[in-house]
Amino acid sequence: MPEQRQAVIAAYETLAAEDDGRVCRDISEEACNAQPQNFLRHATALGLNKAADGLADPKLVLSWLMTHLGAPSVLIGLLVPIREAGALLPQLFTAARIRAMARRKWAWAGAALGQGLGAAIILAAALLTEGWAAGLGILAGLTLLALSRSVASVAYKDVLGKTIAKGQRGTVTGLAGSWSALVVIGFALVLIVFSDARALIVLGALALASGAWVLAGIVFAGLHEDAGAQEGGANGWRAAIANLKYLREDPQLARFILARGLLTSTALAPPYLVILASGDNGAALAGLGALVLASSLAALSSSYIWGRLADRSSRQVLIWTGISGAGAMLLTLAFAALGLEASFWAMPLALFGLMVAHQGVRLGRSTYLVDMVGSDLRAVYTAISNTVIGVILLASGLFGALAALFGAGATLAVFALMAACGAFVAHGLKELGDGRVS
Known about the structure:
438 residues, 0% strand
């Protein structure tokens, strides 16, 4: 047993690039002692979660699957709104209930099991039905997956803040993003090499995703988590509305949410990039593997780096990801203006740049929110932020649909402007980094 613990500590110190004697900040002494094994459990469980996300990606994989099964376009168009809004909007109303739990790891573990069940429903619908029935079945599974994810999102940041010290949080999430990207890269390569069996491969990926979420829940349940404060556990509309007072009382929270809302353009833009690449002949669907590969390579090459940078200054990460996201979208427009949108390399390259920026947005916003507030309000702030962003995503989706009347290029130009404005707003945030050079 001592040898096993030494191996865990050695792995932790290597992965976390520890150089300060493992000084713990912002967590208890008990959590500090358990941090090596907690770090590895976080990296494993979160990586399994992220890998499953990539294998069942609504923007690419599920949209292709529904098209393959003959589902109507009106149902396909609901995939991203259900996935994003369903994962965010309920959070304001579940935060108080989660806060009533002394150990919130159980909320995340249960939510992981729910996501696994949702993926299993999607798989069953794909195997047993087609057309409208397949579309409705897939949307039902995605709804359960999204609602489960909303619970996991609220719980995770709070558990992360209680079990991993400040200065290592971005690192552990970045590490999880990097290794999980390898899994999705393997999936993309299999799609490219065995393109004739694409449907069977996608079904197999859904089965793997379901199993990965179940395993993630089991791993996460083994975390050492101190019992937390349980005050304010009342739930419902009254508690939810009461929580909105923090938007008035904390200008930094309001500015952070505004910056994050503008930076959602990095998530909303990829479908319009695909439209530019595919035209009217659906060529992008034939290149599913190349698009998944580009997105996965972006996560692999940038997640760990963004995580380390976020531990030094998550504010700077938000600024630079807004600038780089706008640049990637402008590069897409330049490729289109030069007539390169149908080439085999141009749009995957642009998507790669865009997804690098998006990975930074995800890591920067997560780390900033965890670091900006203490454990007593972390779950509430997370729920407020995510719920407001859910509304913004719905509004942005409508705006994007209206802008699409003028073409995918015009829509991307608007999203590029949003990203640039997001960088400007993030510039006004307080600096929370500790200034450590590591």
